[in-house]
């Protein structure tokens, strides 16, 4: 029975891409969900916000989840375009003197 539970946990983990990361919606808005349980803050920066480190913070949810909702531009187009460079930045208390960049999506 225990091996089935472990196997199920691996299957659920391997399917997490269905929930996490950026989601481009039909109305041009973008939702982005990340899992960072020890984070003090999560931010998205890139070409779209002139690489500003703090202008685009994620909202902290329960259970270590972080959510970012980016509305569409006035013309209905997404704020992020194909091949835009962005970086997900995670601020952590683990090393208070540094900010950890966990992902570079360029």
Key structural traits:
single chain, 106 residues, mainly beta, four-stranded antiparallel sheet, three-stranded antiparallel sheet, 1 helix
Folded structure, characterized:
The chain has 106 residues and is mainly β. The chain is built from one helix and seven strands. The protein has one helix at 2-14; strands at residues 21-24, 30-35, 39-46, 59-60, 65-70, 86-92, 99-104. The strands form two sheets. It has a four-stranded antiparallel β-sheet with strand order 1-2-5-4, with no helix packed on it. It has a three-stranded antiparallel β-sheet with strand order 3-6-7, with no helix packed on it. The longest helix is centred in the N-terminal third of the chain and has 13 residues, at 2-14. It is globular and about 55 Å long.
Brief digest:
The protein is mainly β. 12% of the residues lie in helices and 37% in strands.
The fraction of residues assigned to DSSP E strands is 35-45%
Which structural class matches the secondary elements?
mainly beta
Q: How far do the termini sit from each other?
A: 43 Å
The count of DSSP E runs of length 2 or more, i.e. the number of strands, is 7
Low-confidence stretches: none
**Rg from Cα:** 16 Å
- In round numbers, the mean pLDDT is 86
How would a textbook summarize the main sheet? 4 strands, antiparallel
Major beta sheet, strand line-up = 1-2-5-4
| Silhouette | globular
SS summary, helix count? 1
Q: What's the helical proportion of residues?
A: 10-25%
In N-to-C order, the SSE pattern is HEEEEEEE
């Amino acid at each position: 029975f225990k091996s089935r539970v472990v196997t199920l946990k691996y299957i659920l983990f391997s399917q997490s891409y269905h929930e996490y990361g950026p989601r481009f919606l039909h109305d041009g808005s973008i939702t982005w969900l990340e899992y960072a349980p020890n984070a003090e803050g999560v931010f998205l920066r890139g070409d779209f916000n002139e690489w500003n480190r703090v202008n685009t913070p994620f909202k902290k949810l329960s259970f270590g989840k972080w959510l970012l909702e980016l509305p569409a531009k006035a013309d209905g187009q997404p704020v992020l375009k194909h091949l835009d460079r962005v970086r997900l930045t995670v601020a952590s208390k683990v090393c208070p003197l540094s900010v950890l960049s966990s992902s570079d999506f360029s």
